[in-house]
Predict the 3D structure of the following.
Amino acid sequence: MSHSNPSFKLETDLLALRSFVAVVEEGGFSAAAKRVHRSQSAISLQIAKLEDRLHNKLLERTSRSVTMTPAGETFLSYARRILALADEASLAVSAPDEPTRLRVGFADYLAPLHLPALLARFRRAHPNCDLTLNLGLGGPLLTSLQKDELDLVFAGPESPAGQLLWEEQLVWTGHLPAEGSSTPLDLVLMPSPCSYRAIAFDTLAKINRTWKLSIEANSVQAVESTLQAGLGLSVLPRSAVPDSLPIIREGLPELPKTSVRAHRNPNQEHNPYLQRFIDFLVEGMDAAA
């Protein structure tokens, strides 16, 4: 019996899906080719065949950039879920019997509120993964990665390298002074080299708004506790702002978006849990969006 619907050959389409996701996340064919260890022409052919089977264009290509079409944006979440499920199935039957270590560093100021729940789910799904998490500033975490002290680091715009996972809006949160715009803003920020610190300073300088650094906190939890006590305002990603803190939408200039990138230890490319953890985190963020 014949069907008019396009049929997929699994062994071909998983490779095509990986290539498509790589092009989107890396922002182009050249970087994607390095990530999936194939030539640019091979990736281009895979995606062309995928588009042909789907009867839809997924990517718009110019000499300078690659962007997703509306169909591509819709297809991306499905592609990630299919790949994650395929990887999970592979791990279920081939994961090592002995615990495998995965040392993850996460920039504290990027950590979403539901990160602990995601970690708990990952541990339940992968009991043979000996997962450890190190929260800190992005710069020092990347240094630890270079020293082979970590296997995977999630950091912000400190380094343009790494795999782009998602972008997120930065917001002002906390409390404005009751006296009005003539009163210097009390800023509560993490120490340098936290990138949000420089963003806050530069954004306020553009409107000639006066400020003073009231408190320098060494963790996001300390920042949030200070703000909850009514002692100033800060800059955080939207997903890191708890319900107990207000987001300030008027009276201050809009902040830019921040990026979250995954940085891998090249000595750990064969770790069976490295890519799975990245996919798990992205799925969790997509579900929470």
Observations:
- The CA atoms of residues 148 and 265 lie 7 Å apart.
